Amino acid sequence: MRSQLLLLGALGITWALQASTAWNRPDEGARTELIQSLSKDHKPGEEIAFSPEWEWGWAHRIHGVIKKPKLRLGRHDLHRPHRGLWLILGPNSSSPPATLGSPERSTRYGPYELRFYRGDQGATPLLEEIAWGRCRTTARRTACREGKGEIRRGEVIFDGRFAHGYKLKLPPSGQATLIIDPKDAKSLVGGIGHTDHGARHGQAPVQLAVRQGDELLFRYAYQPKTGLRPFHLRLDRSAPLRFEFSTSAPDRNEMALSLGLQ
Amino acid sequence: MNALEPLDRRLAWSLGIGTFLLLLFGADSVGFTRDEGYYFKAARDYGRWFDLIFSQPSLAFSQAGIDANWSYNPEHPVLMKSLFALSDILFHRSLGWVSGPTAMRLPGMGMAGLAVALTYVLGRQLFCRPVGLLAALMLLFAPRFYYHGHLACFDSAVTALWVAVVLAYVNRGDSVWGHVRLGLVFGLAIATKHNALFLPIVFGLHWLFCQRDRLSLAKARLRLPPIPWWVLAMGVLGPLVFLLHWPYLWPAPLERVSWYLSFHLHHEHYPVRYFGDGLWEPPFPRAFPFTMWAITLPLVTLVAATAGVLAQARESLSALWHGVWDRQERAFLLLATALFPPLLIAGPKVPIFGGTKHWMNGLPLLLIIAAAWAWPHIQSLGRNRRPFVLAIAALMVLPGAVTLLRHHPHGIGSYSELAGGIRGAANLGMERQFWGGASRQLLDQLNREAKPKARLFLDRTNLDAFKAYQEIGYLRADLRFARGPSRADWGISFHQPDSDWVLSHLRQSGFKPVAAVEVEGVPMASLFKKEP
Predict the structure, then answer these.
(1) Are the beta carbons of B508 and A17 separated by less than 8 Å?
(2) Is residue B55 assigned to a domain?
């Protein structure tokens, strides 16, 4: 009797899950309607993200209606500030990060939801200037090398997840000091952590100490684990920040920084 | 053991032919995998040797002739590749019925049909006709088995041969012919793929279990019962068939067999995405093969298989406890032949790439165990009334068929109800591509939009598969293969661990996404066009 109930239960749950997953399949009509609405309301400079982040099919649809859209690449890429963000939420989506706050607008299109988050117009969504030694990255210069170490701006990879930011390869000395000038910003926001490459190969934690003048503002030991840990530093003054990285095992212990100012 | 009746033979043939036809009709949309590209090339090389046998036999059997035609791809034996070659010669070059690549796929489909048919036969002999049918249909509709059945590869073939050897083993009786047949079939199995090399170990464990009352320890010496004839049959005929089938081994058998075994003992690891983590190097999670079975087989099949394994284990333990000396010990044999493949892969240093194909040979036996457990309960639930019993059996078999239809032709990345389907699996961070076939669905757009002589970077789709697409007319002949994205006009990126860099590189290098191959919204491959 118990076995019969087990089989019956298994049949019931199997077919219920089949129905449920069929119900959650994409609705192309709703998708099209959402994209058309987005293309009408989107303004230059506003960024777009979609969740779940693996639903990469949104990207070519967005590119089809908006010229050179600024796409955020997923959950890890939503830690940074923005000047206006459109977020497409689909079935299987997790909750957006709490740091986004409440949306200004939210519209449903079938199983999808399109949200707009009003950002900070004075924000710098992604730092362009980071100095290392005598080198400084700029809008045009995307990389700096120092003693066989390197910092390079672009996409950083976390095992199938991505973010815009900087990849930091530590030099053989295991030490790197990056200088970030916050200017008049009130906070430095984003995420710091290991790339997937760094998590696989890093043999020791990477210590980070953030100082402004003589004051220690932040200290943390990043274990070699893939992904960005949220980072939010409130700033009382506008002096440059020193990001002091150090590790006893620098070989392939690759870090990622995805930071903006607001 | 139940004797086969004429109806059983008809059913087996029907299942086999039906499977073959289903695969053939669905094959057009299943893209060529990287390994198929290599095997197409190998088959064409070996095919030249078959031509040479008739035109210049002395050259054909010289070392120069052998090495010139059999050197490519020595890491796998050549039974299937030879069949690919012969099929190409017959169905394409001679008869012109199908294209070369399609002809080369036919033996793989035939082997998948054989696997289904033999699963029926084994289930029928060990239990009853309905158990055989249930198991065979569950195998046919296992989405990943169905996918692999289309390919000019070895995985469906070694699955069929694994079942064939088990069948030969249980049917060997005491006759000389029964043992010779076992040895020959084992030879064919190891001539298919190296998974079959472990069968003597499995049968050895079974034999020890069956003969446990004859084992004794006296004066610190272990006494074994007489070595059975199957050891001799498999030990002599198996290697003989293996050696004879593979001309490449003839000039230097010891050296070349050693190389072959060493290649697989030290096989490199390809990355796998597993619950969001990239697994690039050992140690790998021991639960990997079992977890993958759990989330790729239909949930009801999983439940039946788990309950069935427990039931067979209870029977084996009961036999141990009560001392029932059944020299057949079917329960133990079923468990060993079903679970040895995944247990082998569960070793932390054993490569785990390839989805579920590397232990797929255990699947038919697992499904027989599942069907054997389920059938009496199906009968009870249906009150032994045929329409109800058939309906419940159908409800048990059809989830696999539904999933298969929903995910075809991308069964390589199919996940079942326990994972939440293919979308749930994507959310869990599970791998859905590794072999380069999903570019098939992007070829029409390339044909329409690419400029003459455009260069295409196709990521995991390799040059041999690219040429196969052009040969068959799926891709324009003027389009050119680019080895990297830097000089390409178009790029394809697959969504898998070792292609993350491709996706990222294309996005940052002036390529714009223009299309994606999706299954229920889950991307398999994405197409990018270089912006001017």
Answers:
(1) no
(2) yes
pLDDT score of A167: 97
Domain residues for the domain of B480 are 439-530
Cβ A54–B500 below 8 Å, yes or no?
A: no
8 A C-beta contact, residue A17 and residue B420 = yes
**Chain A 165-224, residues with CB within 8 Å of chain B CB atoms:** 196, 200
Query: Which residue, B339, B371, B403, sits at the end of a domain?
Result: B371
pLDDT in tens, B215-224: 777 777 777 7
CB contact under 8 Å between B523 and A14, yes or no, is no
Q: Is A4 on the interface with B (CB under 8 A)?
A: yes
Cα separation, A23 vs A19, in Å, equals 6
Tell me how close the Cα of A113 comes to any Cα of chain B, in angstroms. 15
List, in order, residues 6 or more apart from B423 with CB less than 8 Å away. Answer: A21, A24, A25, A91, A92, B520, B521, B522
**Would B126 be classed as within a structural domain?**
yes
B328 to chain A nearest CA, in Å? 27
Residue B427 lies in a domain: no
Closest CB to A14: pick one of B277, B300, B521. Answer: B300
Segment A67-91 mean pLDDT: 95
Domain A131-261 maps to which CATH number in 1.20.1260.10, 3.10.290.10, 2.60.120.1060, 3.40.50.970?
2.60.120.1060
Which chain B residues touch A200 with a CB distance below 8 Å? 278, 280-281
Enumerate the residues of chain B whose CB falls inside 8 A of the CB of residue A59.
Answer: 513, 516, 526
**Are B355 and B492 found together in one domain?**
no
Instruction: Please report, for chain A, the start and end positions of each structural domain, with discontinuous segments joined by +.
Output: 28-117, 131-261
C-alpha span between B194 and B334 (Å, rounded): 20
At which of B314, B339, B371 does a domain end? Answer: B371
Are residues B446 and B362 part of one domain? no
**What does pLDDT average to over chain B?**
95
Token pair listed for B501: 């860099």
A162 touches chain B (CB under 8 A): yes
Number of structural domains, chain B?
A: 2
Q: What is the DSSP string of A175-223?
A: EEEEEE--TT-SEEEEEEEE-HHHHHH--S-EEEEEEETTEEEEEEEE-
What ipTM was estimated for this complex?
0.94
Contact B427, B276 (CB under 8 A): no
pLDDT of A222 higher than 70: yes
Give the model confidence (pLDDT) of A97-127 as tens digits: 888 989 999 999 999 999 999 999 999 999 9
pLDDT digits over B418-438, tens only? 999 999 999 999 999 999 999
Count of CA atoms in the C-beta half-sphere (13 A) of A196 = 21
What pLDDT shows up at residue B321?
85
A11 interfaces chain B, CB cutoff of 8 Å: yes
B444: which 2 tokens? 């029409």
B432 inside domain: no
Q: Is A63 an 8 Å CB contact of chain B?
A: yes
CA distance B161 to chain A (A): 31
For A179, what's the count of Cα atoms within 13 Å in the CB-facing half-sphere? 13
pLDDT of residue B219: 72
On chain A, the residues whose CB falls within 8 A of the CB of B420 are 17, 21, 92
State whether A18 and B377 contact (CB < 8 Å).
no
B436 close to B465: Cβ distance less than 8 angstroms:
yes
Nearest to B399 among A14, A162, A200 (CB): A14
Which chain B residues contact residue A4 at CB under 8 A?
A: 377, 380-381
CA distances to A93, B10, B130, B305, B311 from B375, rounded to whole Å, are: 40, 22, 7, 12, 13
**Rounded Cα–Cα distance for residues A178 and B480 (Å):** 45
Report the C-alpha gap between B168 and B181 in whole angstroms: 7
Residues B306 and B452 in one domain: no
Radius of gyration of chain B (CA): 24
